[in-house]
């Protein structure tokens, strides 16, 4: 089976080279070169002939397949980008709500390969998979949204976005009754029964662990699980497949042939029921290989099954190589296969150990083994390092297995008789409550997780891997060298943490205009006190609340003294719920203006749920922030949602920083007329550089030296040429978060 591993691993390597490094127009010549080199391997002696032949053929096939897939599947769909017309689409799943209606993954008629995401009206929420919709749509390339290149769509085989134009859409039954859609319908039925059996976050937790649907989890529960390093419990993967196979064995499928006969169709059905994500597909393929190997009188070889699973996933969609779920799943499994046994042997040694010690050693070795390859990925994708993971896994993994098995039993029995499901469901509900409680407790421990907003943490991480690599290769093979490496790593980590906070708060006033994409969030720190002005982003791939919370945690902020929202637009408040779930906030300052969209009510409700004091600014008010002061200006007598907002002046000595939110020129002129504003040194440019803000009158009256534009990928044309020209003519030095990232102003 190792020959299969050599071929499949080289195929995977070729796909990753094609996706990340090699030019697309050079794939075919490179594929021909690899195949030619493989043929020359026939001249080599012995084992080298087979190895080079397998590796060269795998690389050649990967490069050629990546080119062919792009040509035959991706290009026909992306060729529609920018066009508009009538389209007939088949729903591949149930639609989910959006801010403006609903969205759903579809197949376009006439394009049997590849998928699209259709954004339509709320009517989609009433449709079933297999039904068809015909509507006037505008197409957009899913791999590039305006200026940003993204992979979260293409890694799922989605190459086109279709936006409905107009309100008319026709719906048809299509193939909704086909067995093809049974897994999706079964998942929906299970979710409905879970909602009847359980309440609140316990119901959301059961729905997530059984069907992979995490949409019902509250922001607080989602944040606690993530911060405690327990998100993997909800990401359906090999662990869940293992739970399912354990449950099947308990039901009587002990014999290999019977287990294979029962397990194979159940696993395949379960994979489709949970959405066939790369992690669950990987797990199912590995389990299927393990079940099939004895039937063919072969030994199961985990490295071979792992590489074969990766081969099959990338064969189905080479662009899945960029899937974060796939990379984390395979990274964790690689660590479990290659490193966990070695770590466990190291911890147990040759002496006999007690049962408790063996249990602790087994849990710790599994957690550390899985983390070795996933920690760098989490650093890149999520900017965090969860230190509490070994403890949280020890406390919660066994409980999660019981939640899965008993919860599944309760849901299935509820289809027969609901009261029986309610009785059985009492235990998994209690265990789910325990896991959520434990996650909340662990995530409240100081330094339970570290964030790469600390500029020194990345260097420590490199040092950590170099340190243990050196210990691994040093002789003799004794446990003492690993103990020394662990001690050095711990001491250096403490130094790294305590270096990070002073780096952020080294001056009398530190102002950070955070990079949150198309939105605004300004963090102010002075004398050990903290304030945040706005917390939102319109770009869905930016978590404004998480970004702000990461910075606050790195600064050593125990309490955010003030959260100030200039107005209720989504790109200024979208991160508030996540921020409140992760950080303690003392006072929330709001404009007392009406809001037709209900955003004000949602903000107030979230604040009250977290015990935050809410104050409304109706007159010019001054607050103390450490060695600085905050002057909050109320909305003026100007019409419009953007104009009915607060403005914030932060003053430290002779240095003044003004934040105007999204006020337009008329509101700016009224601000100047109604209030005695000083000459300022820095201006957070109004409305992300809109042409209707940052007036000539404002610039002439306040004479700012520095202008920071909080802006990201957008369709509004921000920052506009008009606004930039006015800033240049006023001799203002311009910084932009879409160009420079987070902008830091340090005032001594």
How do the strands and helices of this protein lay out in sequence?
Elements: H1 2-20, H2 27-40, H3 46-78, E1 84-91, E2 96-98, E3 101-108, E4 115-120, E5 132-141, E6 144-145, E7 148-149, E8 158-172, H4 182-197, H5 200-211, H6 219-227, H7 238-250, H8 256-273, H9 278-295, H10 302-316, H11 324-338, H12 340-348, H13 355-381, E9 384-386, H14 389-416, H15 418-424, H16 426-443, E10 449-451, H17 457-473, H18 479-504, E11 509-513, E12 519-526, E13 529-537, H19 544-555, E14 560-564, H20 570-573, H21 576-582, E15 585-591, H22 599-609, E16 613-617, E17 621-625, E18 628-633, E19 647-652, E20 655-659, H23 665-674, E21 682-684, H24 696-702, E22 706-709, H25 721-729, E23 733-736, H26 737-740, E24 743-747
Parallel strand pairs: 4-8, 13-14, 14-15, 15-16, 20-21, 21-22, 22-23
Antiparallel strand pairs: 1-3, 1-5, 2-3, 3-4, 5-8, 6-7, 9-10, 11-12, 11-24, 12-13, 17-18, 18-19, 19-20
Helix pairs in contact: 1-3, 1-10, 2-3, 4-5, 4-8, 4-14, 5-16, 6-16, 6-21, 7-8, 7-9, 8-9, 9-10, 10-11, 11-13, 12-13, 13-14, 14-15, 14-16, 17-18, 19-21
In brief:
The N and C termini lie far apart (66 Å). The strands form five sheets. The protein has a seven-stranded mixed beta sheet with strand order 16-15-14-13-12-11-24. The protein has a seven-stranded mixed beta sheet with strand order 17-18-19-20-21-22-23. It has a five-stranded mixed beta barrel with strand order 1-3-4-8-5.
**What gross morphology would you assign?**
globular
Strand order of the largest sheet: 16-15-14-13-12-11-24
Helix content: 40-55%
Average pLDDT over all residues: 90
Largest sheet: 7 strands, mixed
The number of distinct β-strands equals: 24
What low-confidence regions span 5 or more consecutive residues with pLDDT below 50? none
Structural class: alpha/beta
What is the CA-atom radius of gyration, in angstroms? 28 Å
Count of DSSP-assigned helices: 26
């Amino acid at each position: 089976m190792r020959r299969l591993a050599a071929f499949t691993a080289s195929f995977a390597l070729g796909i990753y080279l094609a996706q990340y490094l090699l030019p697309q127009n050079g794939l075919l010549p490179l594929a021909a070169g690899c195949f030619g080199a493989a043929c020359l391997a026939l001249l080599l002696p012995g084992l080298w002939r087979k190895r080079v032949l397998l590796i060269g053929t795998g690389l050649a096939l990967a490069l050629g397949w990546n080119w062919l897939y792009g040509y035959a599947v991706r290009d026909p769909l992306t060729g529609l980008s920018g066009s508009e017309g009538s389209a007939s689409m088949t729903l591949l799943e149930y639609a989910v709500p959006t801010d403006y209606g609903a969205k759903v993954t579809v197949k376009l008629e006439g394009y049997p390969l590849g998928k699209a995401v259709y954004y339509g009206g709320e009517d989609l929420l009433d449709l079933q998979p297999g039904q068809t919709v015909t509507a006037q749509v505008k197409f957009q390339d899913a791999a590039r949204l305006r200026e940003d290149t993204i992979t979260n769509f293409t890694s799922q085989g989605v190459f086109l976005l279709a936006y409905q134009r107009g309100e008319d859409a026709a719906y048809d039954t299509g193939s909704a009754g086909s067995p093809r859609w049974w897994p999706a319908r079964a998942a929906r039925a299970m979710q409905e029964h879970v909602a009847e059996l359980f309440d609140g976050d316990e119901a959301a937790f059961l729905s997530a662990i059984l069907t992979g649907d995490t949409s019902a989890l509250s922001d607080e529960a989602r944040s606690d699980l993530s911060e405690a390093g327990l998100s993997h419990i909800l990401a359906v993967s090999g662990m869940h497949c293992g739970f399912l196979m354990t449950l099947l064995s308990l039901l009587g499928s002990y014999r290999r042939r019977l287990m294979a006969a029962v397990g194979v169709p159940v696993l395949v059905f379960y994979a489709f029921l949970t959405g066939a994500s790369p992690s669950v597909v990987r797990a199912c393929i590995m389990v299927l290989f393990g079940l099939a190997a004895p039937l063919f009188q072969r030994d199961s070889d985990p490295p071979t099954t792992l590489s074969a699973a990766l081969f099959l996933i990338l064969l189905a969609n080479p662009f899945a190589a960029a899937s974060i779920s796939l990379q984390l799943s395979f990274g964790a499994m690689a660590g479990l296969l290659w490193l966990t046994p070695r770590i466990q042997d190291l911890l147990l040694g040759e002496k006999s150990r007690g049962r408790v010690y063996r249990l602790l050693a087994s849990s710790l070795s599994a957690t550390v083994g899985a983390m070795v390859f996933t920690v760098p990925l989490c650093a890149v994708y999520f900017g965090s390092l969860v230190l509490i993971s070994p403890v949280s896994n020890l406390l919660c993994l066994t409980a999660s297995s019981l939640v899965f098995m008993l919860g599944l039993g309760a849901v299935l029995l509820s289809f027969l008789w609901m009261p029986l499901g309610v009785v059985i469901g009492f235990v998994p509900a209690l265990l789910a409550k325990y896991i959520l409680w434990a996650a909340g407790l662990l995530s409240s421990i100081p330094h339970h997780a570290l964030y790469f907003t600390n500029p020194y943490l990345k260097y420590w991480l490199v040092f950590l891997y170099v340190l243990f690599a050196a210990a691994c290769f040093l002789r003799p093979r004794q446990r003492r060298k690993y103990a020394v490496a662990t001690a050095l790593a711990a001491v250096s980590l403490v130094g790294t943490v305590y270096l990070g906070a002073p780096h952020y708060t080294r001056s009398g006033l530190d102002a950070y205009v955070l990079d949150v994409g198309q939105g605004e969030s300004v963090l102010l720190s002075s004398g050990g006190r903290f304030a945040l002005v706005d917390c939102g982003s319109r770009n869905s791939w930016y978590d404004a609340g998480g970004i702000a919370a990461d910075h606050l945690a790195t600064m050593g902020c125990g309490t955010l003294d003030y959260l100030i929202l200039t107005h209720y637009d989504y790109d200024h408040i979208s991160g508030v719920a996540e921020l409140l779930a992760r950080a303690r906030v003392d006072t929330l300052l709001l404009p007392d203006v009406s809001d037709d969209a209900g955003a004000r009510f949602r903000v107030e409700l979230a604040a009250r749920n977290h015990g935050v004091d809410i104050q409304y600014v109706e007159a010019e008010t001054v607050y103390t922030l450490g060695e600085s002061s905050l002057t909050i200006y109320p909305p003026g007598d100007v019409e419009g949602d953007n104009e009915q907002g607060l403005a914030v002046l932060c003053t430290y000595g002779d240095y003044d920083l003004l934040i105007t939110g999204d006020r337009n020129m008329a509101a700016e002129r009224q601000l100047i007329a109604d209030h005695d504003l000083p000459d300022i040194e820095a201006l957070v440019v109004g409305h992300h550089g809109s042409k209707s803000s940052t007036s000539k009158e404002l610039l002439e009256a306040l004479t700012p030296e520095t202008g920071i534009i909080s802006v990201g990928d957008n369709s509004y044309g921000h920052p506009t040429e008009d606004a930039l020209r006015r800033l240049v003519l006023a001799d203002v030095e311009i910084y932009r978060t879409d160009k420079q990232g987070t902008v830091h102003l340090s005032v001594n």
